[in-house]
Structures are given as C-alpha cells and as structure tokens.
Known about the structure:
Radius of gyration: 19 Å
Largest sheet: 7 strands, parallel
Helix content: 25-40%
Bound molecules: nicotinamide-adenine-dinucleotide, uridine-5'-diphosphate
Strand order of the largest sheet: 3-2-1-4-5-6-11
Shape: globular
Structural class: alpha/beta
Number of strands: 13
Amino acid sequence: MRVLVTGGLGYIGSHTCVELLAAGFDVVVLDNLANSALAALDRIEQIAQRSLAFIEGDIRDADLLDSLLDDYEIEAVIHFAGLKAVGEGQQQPMLYHDVNVAGSHVLLSAMERAGVNCFVFSSSATVYGAEADIPYVETSPVNPSNVYGNTKRIVEMMLADLCQPNDSDWSVAVLRYFNPIGAHPSGLIGEDPRGIPNNLMPYIAKVAVGELQELSVFGNDYSTRDGTGVRDYIHVVDLAKGHVEALKFLAKKQGIEVFNLGSGNGYSVLELINAFKDISGVAVPYKFAPRRAGDLPEFYAEPSKALQLMGWKTELDLNHMLADTWHWQKNNPKGYSAE
Ligand code: NAD
Ligand code: UDP
C-alpha cells in the first residue's frame, strides 16, 4: 500500500515514516519544510534501509495534491502537516486556521476528487480541555481552551461530517496524542525545535547540552503529588507504531473512530527532571516560576480502546524516553542544522 504522509519530515512524521517503511508500506512525503529539515530524509532512509519519495510543497496547494495523489497512486493519507505552537496560535489565529483547518479541507477535498478515502489524522489531547475528568476517555467532553486546540477540534468535526452520510465510504482514524517525547534509538532522528522550545522535554535536553541555562518550572502549587504539572508522556516510536496499526485497522473498517494514544501514566515535571538526571548523569538546573497561562494541572489517557480495537499499547517506559532523548541530543546538539 502506498501512503502519503503530510508533514513527514517533522518530529512525529519522520518516526512514522521509519515504522511504515519497516512494515512494508511505500511512502510518499509532502512537506513544505516550515518546521523541518531535508536532512531528516536521508536519516529516515538510513534507518529503514529503504527509500521514499519526497515532494517539497504545501498542503494548501490543491493542484499539487491533485497531481500527487494521481501520479503516485496514493491509497491512504496520514496527515501530520500543521502548526502546533499554542502561544503562536493565540497570536496568529488566522494563520493557524489557514494551515490547520483550511489546509485539511484542501487535502480532504483533493482526496475526495481522487477517490482516496482512508485518512489518519493527528489530533491532540488538548481538545479535551478543563471540563473532562481524568483519565480522559474518547467519550469525555471536548472543549479546547486555545486556538490550536480549536483547529484540531474543527478538523475532527469536519471528519465526522465527512463520514456521516449513509453511503460514505471513508475510513478515518482520529488519533489524539498525549505528550510525545523521546527519539529513535539510533540517535539519527529526533525532535529539533526552532528557537527556544515551548515544551518541557526539548527544553530539558537543551539545558542539559548547555545551549540554555536553566529550566523554568511553570507552577509548583498545583494540586498534584509534588505541586508541578502532570502529563502522560509517550515514546515517539510507540506513537509512530500507533499509525501503522491505525492503517491496518482502517483496512477492515469504514466510518470514523477516535483513539487516545497515550500510556495511561502521568509524570510530574519534577519527576521528569529527576529521572533525566538518573539516566543521563546531568543535573538540569531549574527554578520555580509562575504557572503558564492556560495550563491544566494534570491529565493522562485512558488508552484501552486502542488496545481493544487496534491491538496497540505503549511498550517503552519513561527511562527509554529519556535515554533516547539524551542520545539524540548528545549526538546532535544543534539538531539537523549541523548538516
Ligand atoms: P512538526 O512541526 O515537527 O511536524 C509538522 C511538519 O509539517 C513539519 O515537517 C512542517 O515542515 C510540516 N508543515 C507545516 N505546515 C505545512 C504545510 N502547510 N504544508 C506542508 N507541510 C507543512 O510537528 P510534530 O510534533 O511532528 O506534530 C505533527 C502533528 O501532530 C501536528 O499536526 C501536531 O499538531 C500534532 N500533534 C503534535 C503533538 C506534539 O506534542 N508534538 C501533540 C499532539 C498533536
Ligand atoms: N513546563 C515547564 N517548563 C517548561 C515547559 C513546560 O514547567 O519550560 C511544564 C508545563 O507547565 C506542563 C508540563 O511541563 O506542566 C508539560 O508541558 P509541555 O508544554 O511539554 O506539554 P503540554 O503542556 O502541552 O501538555
């Protein structure tokens, strides 16, 4: 089966390409390099020992999509391409709606014209928002609290609408990711944020290699076990494998299905810092800082639906996540930009 992977050179996309190639899928990547480097392409091929097709372009380019879906005889699409920085989304809402919502509409419309009806969508646990009880279940209320989360929710609704007619032949998996961290165990691909990272794990990794001085821990007065925020961290390789299982699942199933992809375990910021020190031998200097606006104290997944329907669950624990993050960051202190 030949799969189009939009955003396939990004963090999660690159790891997913490796797993798709290993599982025997043919892969075509469409990426505009807005937040990725061409160097990732060679690295993916080096790990997989197989080649893939790469097209540099934008998901909002309908003509490009029409020819690409046809020329490469695409049978399924995994849609990673998009913008994901919560703060940037608050500052530039129209940009986020353009890329994430309008971009998805252009892509799905091109798929409809081409008769390609198998789709895996990168959604996020952020769609649940403050009102859902933890752990989050796929049926928990959704009420995102920021522009980025709204764009994910709108695309989820677009997909539900696409699948609702009785004669719809779409097969859609909405994957709500929890907090992906880690890197491929080869140390060849990993997360390579531009500028100062927004997220905890890449921030810790950059302090550990000396690129940043000190971590700010956002809030130590939450009603959690040590007062710092708790999240469900998931190894990016486990997450990538979830996409392979989703494609296999969709081959046998029509309609739309929503899955949490998380481990079901929560770790606090301080637990992550301490476990990182045990694994790497590097004590990351930190200070307590005020809470970050919009942050929830604690959330984690109830992940059993993915196990029941797709046979997928996480296999790699926090130590693997931290060891692989450190391996990648140590080998590539400047990410891909050294190439
Ligand atoms: P990433 O930024 O590393 O990857 C996104 C890729 O899409 C990049 O390679 C970028 O160049 C490309 N891209 C952006 N706009 C594009 C456009 N208009 N046309 C073509 N390519 C474009 O992000 P990631 O962490 O790999 O996330 C992948 C997807 O998963 C995103 O949709 C994101 O919202 C979602 N997600 C990520 C997380 C996370 O914590 N990383 C959590 C939940 C959901
Ligand atoms: N966090 C922190 N310092 C940072 C970045 C994040 O203390 O520099 C905290 C944040 O408040 C949250 C946790 O780490 O409790 C995970 O944050 P991240 O941005 O990685 O994920 P998200 O909040 O989007 O789930």
